[in-house]
Amino acid sequence: MNGDASQIRKALGNLALMADQSVKQQSPKLSFPQLDGLDEVTAMLVTFAFDLQRRMEYLFLATAEFAPEGTPGLARRLKQEYAYLNEGTVDTVPWQERAKRAHELLLKLHAEVGPTHDRVLDDVAERP
Predict the structure, then answer these.
(1) Distance from first CA to last CA of the chain, Å, rounded?
(2) 20 to 30 Å CA-CA from 63: which of 53, 55, 78, 99?
């Protein structure tokens, strides 16, 4: 990206498109009575998950005006992955299966972007 305003707007639009994409199943598993009975490690993980999702919601608020300028191919990919994670109900697709699906998508994306990210990170770190 060379600082071209249209490229910056597209990048911000892509951030907005990604910001509010999370598993949306409604489940009593995380209602207040269940939260009260969690061990400390699980409570810590739930806290991190809730906090990350809250931050993603704020990211969307901050970039929403740019969303229409996002990349259509990315929007289609996000919708496809979202549908895969949210398929069925919590009765037909349990949370353990959704966790496996989320992990599968994460590994696929990491394999796609990891090497490029590592190369860019190294290049930037070597600058004076």
Answers:
(1) 20
(2) 99
Supply 49's token pair. Answer: 């998950």
The structural domain count of the chain equals 1
SS3 65: helix
Q: Are 24 and 86 in contact (CB under 8 A)?
A: yes
Residues sharing a CB contact under 8 Å with residue 12, sequence separation 6 or more, in sequence order: 63, 66, 69
pLDDT in tens, 98-109: 889 999 999 999
- Rounded to whole angstroms, the Cα distance separating 27 from 49 reads 15
Q: What is the pLDDT of residues 13-67, one digit of tens each?
A: 888 888 876 776 555 555 555 677 788 998 898 889 889 888 988 999 999 999 9
Domain of residue 118, residue span: 5-125
Q: What is the pTM of this model?
A: 0.78
